[in-house]
Specification:
mainly alpha, 81% helix, 12 helices
């Protein structure tokens, strides 16, 4: 992998992890575009960890408040919200890896995410703040997060839409979504890193190169940090529908590629 490719992948990961357009779906597309095969999964783990560090830094005060007082309602809500994704990931992970990485699936997933974002953009009347979140609200948002395990479906898109559907105001829905993301990205990263080490990650690291890995991590961290602030501003402006248009355009290109060239990846 070249440094240029690592920079592009890091930028895309940093943008798409938090903006509601699916980082995993975009990384799959770029791997196909650049012809990256050997070590691609290892590199994805690294750049996901870069965005994990970004969200931890951005919400460091919230995290520190939870560490100082772990026995509070928000801690329980985050645990409840994480359970559905853990269960779904445990039972469906291998199925997803084997069957949900094709071009036609990504086109369908991008289309679905676009629909969810359009719905979210119309949900403007929520008034619930953090203190008003119920256990069922957390479970519902957690189920929405579980829907985003397959690539192409945005985690932030589903969880924010779920929060708005339960009556949370936009700022609270986004904040709860990002705090859930910390747990989800960390858990998935640890599991995937363990699996890669078990399979022999040294060969994949050698195939990619140490410098591209470092560059990808740093770029994903910096761009991811900036993307969080951008999404929070966009939520206040109610402009999520523009992401829908982008995703539908991308899906249309993938559908056209499938129909004309019959390519599935």
């Amino acid at each position: 992998m070249s440094i240029f490719e690592a920079i592009i992948l890091g930028i895309v990961q940093g943008i798409s992890e938090f903006l509601p357009i699916s980082s995993s779906g975009h990384l799959i597309l770029l791997h196909q575009f650049f012809g990256i095969d050997k070590g691609a999964f290892t590199f994805d783990i690294v750049v996901h960890l870069g965005t994990l560090v970004a969200v931890i830094i951005y919400f460091r005060h919230d995290i520190w408040a939870l560490i100082k007082n772990p026995f509070q309602k928000l801690t329980g809500l985050l645990i409840i919200g994480t359970i559905p994704a853990v269960i779904a990931g445990f039972f469906l992970r291998n199925v997803i890896e084997d069957n949900f990485r094709t071009g036609i699936w990504l086109a369908a997933a991008f289309t679905l995410t676009g629909v969810l974002l359009l719905i979210a953009d119309r949900l403007t009347k929520g008034k619930k703040e953090e203190r008003d979140i119920t256990w069922f609200d957390a479970l519902f948002i957690g189920c929405c997060q579980a829907l985003a395990i397959p690539p192409g479906i945005s985690r932030s898109g589903t969880t924010i839409t779920g929060g708005l559907a339960r009556g949370l105001n936009r700022e609270t829905a986004a904040r709860f979504s990002f705090l859930l993301a910390i747990i989800a990205i960390f858990g998935a990263g640890v599991l995937e890193a363990y699996q890669e080490i078990s399979r022999g990650a040294e060969a994949n690291i050698a195939a990619i190169g140490v410098m591209p890995i470092i560059v990808g991590f740093v770029v994903a961290l910096v761009v991811g940090y900036l993307s969080i602030g951008l999404l929070l501003k966009l939520l206040k402006a109610c402009n999520l529908k523009y992401f829908s248009f982008y995703l539908w355009g991308l899906a249309l290109l993938l559908f056209a590629d499938w129909m004309i060239f019959n390519r599935f990846f």
